[in-house]
Amino acid sequence: MKRFLTTFVLLIISLFLVASGVDAALDHLSHSVTQNSFTVYNEQGNVVLAYNGDLSACKAYARPGQVASPGFLHRT
Fold first, then answer.
1. Which residues contact 41 (CB under 8 A, 6 or more apart)?
2. Would you state the pLDDT for residue 7?
3. If you compute the radius of gyration of the chain from its CA atoms, what whole number of angstroms results?
4. Could you tell me which residues come within 8 angstroms of residue 22 by beta carbon, excluding any fewer than 6 positions away?
5. Could you state, in order of their start, the residue ranges of all structural domains in the chain?
């Protein structure tokens, strides 16, 4: 009986910690900043396109295909 109570108490405590961790993570995500910056560089390292603003509402309209080289794209 003592082993059952110990296991039950540890189970309840661990479930509480998991639930509070998930709640804190979701709360943090809902209050996070939506400002982003997006910059495209050419082969010489010059900035071709730069955008600073809210990218959360943007949708990708490009069709899947060949992706540009990762050296020319920088997102922070």
1. 47, 48, 71, 72, 73, 74
2. 95
3. 23
4. none
5. 1-32, 33-76
| Structure tokens belonging to residue 16 | 């509480």
Q: Report whether 51 contacts 37 (CB < 8 A).
A: yes
Query: Shortest CA distance to 69 belongs to which of 36, 45, 51, 52?
Result: 45
Q: In this structure, is the dihedral angle defined by the CA atoms of residues 25, 29, 32 and 35, taken in order, positive or negative? A: positive
Q: What is the value of pTM for the model shown?
A: 0.43
Helix (H, G, I), strand (E, B) or coil at 63: coil
Q: Return the biggest CA–CA distance within the chain.
A: 73
Both tokens assigned to 45: 């390292």
Hey, which of 23-27, 44-48, 50-54 has the most confident mean pLDDT? Answer: 23-27
Identify any residues that bridge with 39 across adjacent strands, giving them in sequence order.
50, 74
- How confident is the model over 52-66, as pLDDT tens digits? 777 666 665 555 555
